Amino acid sequence: MSPITTLILSLLFLSVTIVAADDGDTTLTPYEALQSYNFPVGILPKGAKGYDLDKSTGKFNAYLNGSCSFSLEGSYQLKYKSTISGHISKDKLTNLDGISVKVFFLWLNIVEVVRSGDDLEFSVGIASANFPLDNFEVCPQCGCGLDCNGNGSGQVRKIRKNPFVSSV
């Protein structure tokens, strides 16, 4: 191989390595990645094992150990698929797929989460609800949510009953 060919191949390899590190840098945990976009760790349940993120577009996939469901305060049921996808930017998660909430008797997909000051607004498309940010300081656990000891001490504070009634 000629020295010029070797140099060109070396530069090509270096540029591919730089692009791969820039687009697929997963040195952060999924929870740290959420925090870097100004979201609390508790919007993702325990057990997230990884993620993919295209920083140029914000498109992401987060991976759990499997599907996950739990209740909060006995009245809010949430389901997470093993893969959650969407777009992320500072203070905004959009085009979400893989998270649903039971409202009355229907399961509705949570399609957007927006941080506004000390609140998070969750949208199911036709309705939205705001919750205080401090409700999401701790990650819920699959199966038992925030009350895994059965003593009620891990319950979410300041959560409002049936908030998914205001239209967007």
From TrEMBL:
Signal peptide: 1-21
Keywords attached to this entry: Signal
Pfam family for this entry, one: DUF538
The keyword Signal belongs to this UniProt entry's keyword annotation: yes
Listed PANTHER family: F22D16.19 PROTEIN (PTHR31676:SF156), T31J12.3 PROTEIN-RELATED (PTHR31676)
Protein name (record): Uncharacterized protein
Lineage: Eukaryota, Viridiplantae, Streptophyta, Embryophyta, Tracheophyta
